[in-house]
Design a protein that fits this description.
Length: 83
C-alpha cells in the first residue's frame, strides 16, 4: 500500500490531516483520543473547454489561445518566418 495524506474527523469535530497507508479508515484523534474516521476527499476534475459544456472554461481557453497566438504573431513579425 502507498502512504498518502488523508483527513480524519472524530465525533467531537476535531479534524486532523495525517500521512497513512491508503487502507487505513480510522485512527485515534490527535486532539481528544476518540476514534476519528477518514473523510471522503473531493474528486479531482478538469473542465473540458473544447466541449462547450462549460462556457466559463471555454471562454478562458479562447482568451488564453488568443493571447498565445498574438505572442506568436508578434515574435514572427519581429524575427521573421520560422522556416
Amino acid at each position: 500500500m502507498s502512504i498518502r495524506v488523508f483527513d480524519f474527523e472524530c465525533a467531537a469535530g476535531h479534524r486532523n490531516e495525517m500521512f497513512v497507508e491508503s487502507d487505513v479508515h480510522s485512527m485515534q484523534c490527535l486532539t481528544c483520543g476518540k476514534i476519528a474516521r477518514r473523510l471522503l476527499a473531493a474528486p479531482r476534475s478538469k473542465l473540458d473547454p473544447l466541449s462547450g459544456d462549460f462556457p466559463g472554461a471555454t471562454m478562458k481557453w479562447e482568451a488564453n489561445r488568443e493571447s498565445h497566438m498574438a505572442k506568436e504573431r508578434k515574435t514572427k513579425d519581429k524575427h521573421g518566418s520560422w522556416t
